[in-house]
Write a structure and sequence with these properties.
Blueprint (H helix, E strand, L loop, with lengths): L3 H12 L17 E6 L2 E5 L5 E6 L2 E5 L7 H11 L4 E5 L5 H4 L2 H4 L4 E5 H8 L12 E3 L2 E6 L2 E6 L11 E4 L4 E3 L20 H20 L3 H19 L28 H28 L4 H25 L5 H18 L6 H29 L5 H51 L9
Helix pairs in contact: 8-9, 8-11, 8-12, 9-11, 10-11, 10-12
Bound molecules: zinc ion.
Length: about 450
């Protein structure tokens, strides 16, 4: 199995892209050097943008072809790697140090590029017909070649308006053209429709591709680790002292779970529980929507949801140490008011970190309530009916998880994300009145 670091190092080399220099150069001294990257992919270094070469049973596919005067040398270097026919030439963008060899290699294979690459090359009077891409696309295309899918992804204007990220999905190699330059800031060619914000977005997308690749080899271990979790909890559960079975003689004739709802306070507690679990769901539902609206990356949105989960876990770890100092109902009221306040300000959070701060407060509030709901439930119900009460609570939560996302979709479509946040804020904050009125322990009549 390949280790991660060499992969990153190789990828770094692969990402290294040359400068676009069309000043007079002495190409006679340029040597073409082939460097193995990963799988059946090699990188050719010469002058200008690096070339990726895929070799194998289907023949040869190259990404970019440097300058025209180097074409013969490049051909010879490819021949040494694989004497098969050159079937495809993929262009990452139109600059001369990436497409200069098109006229030479276009006679051998099919040139594939973004539509703007063809338009820009065709706009130059000295471009021969063979140098023009034959197959063009606008957003996405795939070439299935040498046993892997090679994805051509256009993410919008970056270095130019026709940049393509080329992802060799099985080998785990990304050719970035000039979207990435080693040790210096990439060049944004405004004259070719480049865009700085777009360039940052493109690099971020490429990093996500790399992150997926880095974590994929961990999977077998990851699943093994997950397997140990239920086993560990089973072992721990065995250490919990057994509780005496419920006294069945206390059950009155005709008792069923529904008449538990007549217990003073229980209906209110279930309402409070429903509002709190809906708050949780609405947050998970809206953060990606809001984040997408604001143009945040998937990783930024994931981070906001991640800090929420960390805050929930942290407050639950703290609860055993704080429980004896806290009154359940006060915590419920405080948590609901906090959730309402957080929902009120959330739509004003225009930066990912501000959303993160909101998520932390919400995580503290919502994380603290579940243990409080459970203890209150125990206090409100007679001991021999705890099981039924817990079942009622589970039913409310499951019903809410099934129905509420539908309601969120409808309300969200009508009011927008902001409206939905505020509606939920008002609901959960007014629910604190019900929380305040949950009465003391009592028994069934
Ligand atoms: Zn370039």
């Amino acid at each position: 199995m390949r280790t991660i670091l060499p992969f990153v190092a190789r990828l770094g080399l692969m990402l290294l892209a040359g400068t676009w220099l069309v000043t007079a150069q002495d190409f006679s001294k340029v040597q073409i050097k082939a460097i193995p990257v990963a799988g059946n992919i090699h990188m050719l270094e010469g002058q200008g943008g690096n070339i990726a070469v895929s070799t194998g049973p289907d023949g040869v596919l190259i990404v970019d072809d440097q300058f025209a005067p180097l074409a013969e040398k490049i051909s010879a270097a490819i021949e040494k790697l694989d004497s098969g026919p050159i079937r495809f030439v993929l262009n990452t963008h139109w600059h001369g140090d990436h497409t200069g060899g098109n006229a030479h290699f276009g006679k051998k294979g099919t040139i594939v590029a973004h539509a703007n690459v063809r338009t820009r090359l065709a706009g130059k009077s000295d471009t021969p017909k063979e140098a023009l891409p034959v197959f063009t696309f606008t957003n996405f295309a795939s070439v299935h070649f040498n046993g892997e899918e090679i994805r051509l992804i256009h993410l919008g204007p970056g270095h130019t308006d026709g940049d393509t990220l080329i992802h060799f999905t099985k080998s785990g190699v990304v050719h970035m053209g000039d979207l990435f330059t080693n040790r210096r800031f990439p060049f944004v060619d405004l004259g070719s429709g480049g865009n700085l914000a777009g360039l940052l977005h493109d690099i971020e997308a490429a990093l996500e591709l790399i992150a997926i690749r880095l974590f994929a080899p961990l999977q077998p271990w990851f699943w093994m680790l997950l397997l140990t979790l239920p086993l560990a909890s089973l072992a721990w559960a065995g250490r919990v002292p057994p509780e005496a079975p419920a006294d069945r003689s206390q059950h009155a004739q005709g008792d069923n779970a529904w008449n538990l709802l007549r217990l003073p306070g229980l209906l209110r507690l279930l309402l409070v529980n429903w509002l709190l679990s809906s708050s949780w769901d609405v947050h998970s539902f809206l953060v990606p929507v809001l984040g997408h609206e604001r143009g945040f990356s998937a990783s930024a949105i994931g981070l906001v949801l991640g800090v929420f989960a960390v805050a929930v876990a942290a407050v639950r770890l703290a609860i055993p140490f704080l429980a004896h100092r806290l009154a359940e109902r006060k915590v419920l009221v405080f948590a609901m008011l906090t959730a309402g306040a957080v929902f009120a300000v959330y739509p004003f959070a225009h930066q990912a970190w501000v959303m993160g701060v909101c998520a932390v407060f919400l995580g503290f509030a919502l994380g603290a309530v579940q243990p409080m709901v459970m203890t209150t439930l125990h206090q409100l119900t007679p001991p021999h009916r705890h099981g039924e009460a817990i079942a009622l609570r589970s039913m409310v939560i499951n019903l809410s998880s099934a129905v509420m996302p539908l309601a969120f979709g409808l309300v969200g479509a009508a009011l927008g994300a902001t409206g939905l946040f505020w509606a939920m804020g008002v609901l959960v904050a007014s629910g604190s009145i019900a929380a305040r009125r949950i009465g003391p322990q009592s028994a069934l009549p």
